[in-house]
Structure prediction request, 299 residues.
Amino acid sequence: ICDEPGASKFPVLAKIVDAFRRIDPERKTFINLLPIYAGAEMLGADTYSDYLDLFCKTVNPHYLCYDYYEFLGIGRTTQKRGTYFTNLKAVKDVADKYGLETRIIVLLTEHGVYSNVTRAEIAWQANTSLLYGLKGLSYFTYSHPGDDTSFIWKNSMIDKNGEATQHYYDVQSENKITRVLGNALYHTSSDKVFKLNADGVTDVEEYEKYGRLRSVTGQNALIGFYDNGWFMIMSSCSASEEGSCTVTANKIKGTLLWLNPDSACWEYADTCSYITENSGGGYTISLPAGQALLLCSIT
Prediction:
């Protein structure tokens, strides 16, 4: 219906959404919201949380969706915008309040000030979305705009001649993993997200003993828990030069399992190349940039 509306448009959007609910109740409407780095003038609200809350109260949307492009810099001179996790948490909190599903559109195509993302950065965006319980993921943009000269467009999935690029195959490969993890997590809710000695990650609490994972040591990790007791461990690094992710759990309550994206089945930890079992029943998990494992323990 509308892309990135300010709050002044919410009343008319509410009427359109209401009309769809009455006339075509099987169809869901799509409204994509502004990210947190939009200014108050664009938002039409004092704060980003006020903007989200007003949207939900006024429009009564089918779900919350927003876009956020974290990676800045032409080509591979990349820096992070820095409010990515703040935006994720703000959307999650408001969605929880109103009982809404959440979706995100992340960066793929290099354009304007935005970087040419790597396969690891594609994985990082997908896995952080799952970490916070988002239910839908899209990439901007699928094809190369033909005549738009307002930006320098490069490295879309499909070029101007209709040919698949490397990014097409990067996303295709990552989607095989995301779909398995996303399907497993679809009927769960994100309970809590922590960081573990993760440089550059803001607005995320430092890990404390939680759930069945209990006490851990390590660095460059993000750890998320779901309402059914499952947990995800992922690298907080989006590029290999940022460091390596290691998490060591001296003792996990129960037997550790991981969801293998290749088989779409839960398997014992000793079948995973990222997991090493320690003496005494503990485990060390080492992950490359952007990668994640969905885990659970059984007794």
